Amino acid sequence: MANETELTFEEAMAALEDIVGQLEHGDVPLEQAIDLFQRGMKLSQLCSQKLEQVERKIEMIVDEDGDTRTKPFGADFEENGGERA
């Protein structure tokens, strides 16, 4: 398998789901379960980092008073106390 940092978000999520499935099944030897858990934690962190990167890149185009400007995605949500405008 490719280096984990080279995985796409979708590949990392699929690998994480596979690990969770193996651990939930319950017939994995303890040492292997620990290794799977550690790999799952790394994949979880990778997914979180990739989501944060995408979140920073997403911007909404907002038309206010005839001026078009960009504003971070989710800004309306945060300004309205967690409610969509």
Summary, kept brief:
Keywords: Cytoplasm, Exonuclease, Hydrolase, Nuclease. The chain has 85 residues and is of the alpha+beta class. The protein is 59% helix and 14% strand.
Describe this structure in words.
The chain has 85 residues and is of the alpha+beta class. 59% of the residues lie in helices and 14% in strands. The protein is built from 3 helices and 2 strands. Helix 1 packs antiparallel against helix 2 (30-57). The radius of gyration is 19 Å and the shape is elongated. The chain starts with 8 loop residues before the first helix and ends in a 6-residue tail after the last helix. The model has no long low-confidence stretch (mean pLDDT 80). Belongs to the XseB family. It holds the Pfam family Exonuc_VII_S.
Topology summary:
Layout: H1 9-25, H2 30-57, E1 59-64, E2 67-72, H3 75-79
Antiparallel strand pairs: 1-2
Helix pairs in contact: 1-2
